[in-house]
Write a structure and sequence with these properties.
The protein has 10 helices and 2 strands. The chain is mainly α. The radius of gyration is 31 Å and the shape is flat.
């Protein structure tokens, strides 16, 4: 091979290597650009969802305050405005990727200070309770969205005794008839006959479900043949189900 041919071959190889390098650089740039574009789309979707969610939460809070605060109080409009401002501020946290416990604690302290300053009359408790409930609803929503979690929440979850919870809580109420029984006696006692009419169960079938609730301490019988009443454990379980359902439904 002549010197000219050898130099030509070397130059050609260098050109090929340069083209290959440029192609790799271009591909990396293209992939990076696509990744940026995808990330931007996902961020836009998150922002749009957050705006819709925040608007819904704020509107829901306004309607609840308007309906459930003391209607004939001359301070209603003033206090309602203060509550709305507070809840609109906390609702904006839903737009965050994460909310640290210190921030939530600061809002709790702010609300408590507001209560000390403004709650001067017995009727005030009704309105402040409503505002507090709406704030808790927002905090629970943050938990559901996985943007807020307290350290003790994680510890409680990790220490949850699974077999015991299933046996003592889940199993007794994971049945339509038993949940109906529990719900029906949450506010009033019921006799065997009343529960039979309510559930459509007779004799042994109804006794089977009642025994499940009795043996796990969800309900009690006043006497050997008396009415059935809900226990503290049963009411706590029923209230917990109600809270979970309201969060999931939202």
């Amino acid at each position: 091979m002549s010197t000219v041919e050898s130099e030509y071959k070397n130059e050609l190889q260098e050109i090929k290597e340069e083209i290959s390098s440029m192609r790799k650089e271009f591909n990396r740039f293209f992939e990076y650009s696509n990744q940026q574009y995808l990330e931007q789309i996902l961020q836009d979707m998150k922002n749009n969802f957050s705006r819709i969610l925040i608007d819904y939460v704020v509107e829901d809070s306004k309607n609840s305050l308007d309906e459930n605060m003391i209607q004939d109080c001359k301070m209603k409009n003033f206090c309602e405005s203060i509550f709305n401002d507070f809840l609109q501020g906390t609702a904006q946290l839903l737009n965050n990727d994460s909310v640290d416990p210190e921030t939530i604690e600061q809002y709790y302290e702010q609300f408590n200070e507001l209560k000390k300053e403004k709650a001067k009359y017995p009727k005030c408790e009704t309105c402040f309770s409503e505002a507090s409930k709406l704030f808790e609803k927002q905090v629970n929503l943050m938990r559901s969205l996985k943007i807020y979690e307290k350290e003790d929440d994680k510890e409680k979850i990790q220490n949850l005794p699974v077999e015991e919870v299933v046996k003592d809580v889940c199993d007794p109420i994971a049945n339509k008839q038993r949940l109906t029984i529990l719900k029906s006696i949450a506010t009033d006692t019921k006799s065997f006959t009343q529960l039979s009419k309510l559930t459509g169960l007779n004799g042994g079938n109804l006794l089977f479900h009642l025994d499940k609730l009795l043996n796990t301490g969800m309900i009690q019988q006043i006497s050997e043949r008396g009415d059935y009443i809900i226990t503290g454990k049963g009411y706590a379980a029923l209230k917990g189900i109600s809270n979970v359902y309201s969060q999931i439904k939202l």
